[in-house]
Amino acid sequence: MERRNKAPALIDGLTADLGGKKTESFFRRIGELFDFEALASPLLDLFDDQPGPGRPHWPVVLMLKCLLLQKWFGLSGVQLEDLLQDRLSFRRFVGLSLVDATPDETTLVVFRKRLLEAGKLSELFENSLAILKHKGVVLQEGTLVDATIIDAPMGRKRPDGQHTHDPAATYTKNHGTLRHGYKAHIATEKRGIIVNYLLDTAKVHDSQHIDDLTAGEKVAVYADSAYSSKQRRERLAAAGIDAKITHKRVRGQAELTPEQRRFNTTCSVVRAMVEHPRAWMSKMGFTVARYRGLTKNAIDFGLGVIAYNLKRSMSLLGQPLTKPRPGRWDKAPLRPQSA
Q: Contact 195/129 with Cβ under 8 angstroms?
């Protein structure tokens, strides 16, 4: 049974104009552009196994908004609980009146656990991507691939001989520096929307996942020299796909040819867009693993991907390059309709 929030009270009307203007503007804009009921639709059966009598669960849409708030503002569960109690704009966004109770950190943990156990994250991501495609945000003119390391604490040895490090995390060397953790692999389209992603351990080389990340691409693949191989170029060419993968020196080659350098420069100009999601996630704290274990960190990273895509699309929806199709996700027009 789903919990029902109370109707807005007099105090809500009196405080309707209060709150941070910039944050309020962000929430209003994203609420106009996206139907969060449609976004959360893959999660609506998360609590179907909950028996009738007993404590009702919080609305799924409200909980999804809470998770997105964490990613947009780089908040822990405790920080989000505090801000939901303290910030008017946060309460209004998730759908809480000033007389409603507030979900606590434990509630957020339980919801994430259900999300993990039900294996719903992939479906949620695909649904969010379908919404963005419908709105004309996602270009189908090539896929850009990159990877970045997410550090996990190396831990320490305890007196009993056991070690406190995350056993799922692995070691790798990055520019001569020993790193321990995971590696996030992403594929974006040309305007920076992430169209595919996965999280693996740090020791797995970048090139091991490019074929999975670009499956279905029919135009071009952009990547740096870590993904360069003669076989991959030939395979892409045979499929009619432009291999925009920067060259690296091969054995016996002292330096790149002028043609290779020009080719690399051309590729890098386009490939630079894949740095946008990396920069945003770094700013939001995704340089360090928040949990122990690959699965929990994959859930955390996937939620960050969805949050990034929604925020990134806000600046793209004002200038759509593809025409949206009419459908159930069309909550707001992409541009003002002519009189």
A: yes
CATH of domain 140-291: 3.30.420
Closest CA to 274 of 336, 214, 231: 214
Give pLDDT tens digits for 251-298. Answer: 888 888 999 999 999 998 898 888 889 888 888 888 899 999 999 999
d(CA 108, CA 103): 7
Q: What residues are paired with 244 via a beta bridge?
A: 222
The full set of domain ranges for the chain reads 19-118, 140-291
Residue with tokens 């009619």: 240
| DSSP-derived secondary structure letter, 337 | P
Burial class (CB in 10 A: 0-12, 13-18, 19+), 65: buried
Can you point out the beta strands (E) in 27-168? 143-151
**pLDDT of amino acid 328:** 47
CA distance linking residue 201 with residue 208, whole number of Å: 12
What tokens were used for 98?
A: 């000033």
Distance CA 210, CA 243 (A): 12
Computed on alpha carbons and rounded to an integer, the radius of gyration of the chain in Å comes to 23
pLDDT digits (tens, 9 = 90+) for 116-156: 999 999 999 999 999 999 998 998 889 999 999 999 988 78
- Residue 215 phi/psi, 5° resolution? -60, 130
Total-model pTM: 0.85
Q: In whole angstroms, give the CA distance from residue 270 to residue 258.
A: 19
- Per-residue burial over 150-167, b if 16 or more Cβ lie within 10 Å, else e, is bebeeeeeeeeeeeebbe
Helix, coil or strand: residue 172: strand
Mean pLDDT of the chain: 85
